[in-house]
Each structure stands twice: as structure tokens, then as C-alpha cells.
Design a protein that fits this description.
Length: 91
């Protein structure tokens, strides 16, 4: 049976973008999913790098990268707290 991915709370909302991760992803290297208006992307956090994108335009991806660079420390803090709460290894 496939493991269901449960959505974690949104960790950041800014400029219409939502940033979140899934509980099932906590064993992977730190990353976030980003969504806005039916578009979605996945970004690695260390270093900030695009993993995949659906329907975002290049200027939007650049804006998302700037946001991630600014809030990377905060996002990593939430990631690590969730790992600790759920008994996952530290990433």
C-alpha cells in the first residue's frame, strides 16, 4: 500500500506564495514545497536550489529563490523542530 503524504502546516506565507513540507518528507534532505494559484515547485534548502516546478514562470522562480534565501534559517528551524517532534533523524 502506498504511504499517504500528509500535508504539514504552512510554514511561511508571503507575496501570495505558500511554503510547506510533508511529514513523510522529513527523512529527506531539508526542502519545501511552494504553491501559488495552482502552480507548485519543490526547492532544496541547503543550498537553495530548484528540485522541480510545475507552471511557475522564470521570474516567479527567481522571486521564490530570493524569499527562500531570506527565510532559509527560519524554515530550517521549523524543519528540525518537526523532525525532533516526530522522531526523525536530523537533516
Amino acid at each position: 500500500m502506498l504511504e499517504e503524504k500528509r500535508t504539514m502546516p504552512v510554514v511561511l506565507r508571503i507575496k501570495g506564495y505558500r511554503f510547506w513540507f510533508y511529514e513523510a518528507d522529513l527523512d529527506e534532505p531539508p526542502h519545501v514545497h511552494v504553491g501559488k494559484e495552482g502552480k507548485e515547485a519543490k526547492y532544496w534548502i541547503i543550498p537553495v536550489a530548484l528540485a522541480k516546478s510545475r507552471r511557475f514562470r522564470n521570474h516567479e522562480l527567481s522571486e521564490i529563490e530570493r524569499i527562500l534565501a531570506e527565510y532559509r534559517g527560519d524554515i530550517l528551524e521549523v524543519w528540525r523542530k518537526e523532525q525532533g517532534r516526530r522522531g526523525h533523524r536530523q537533516g
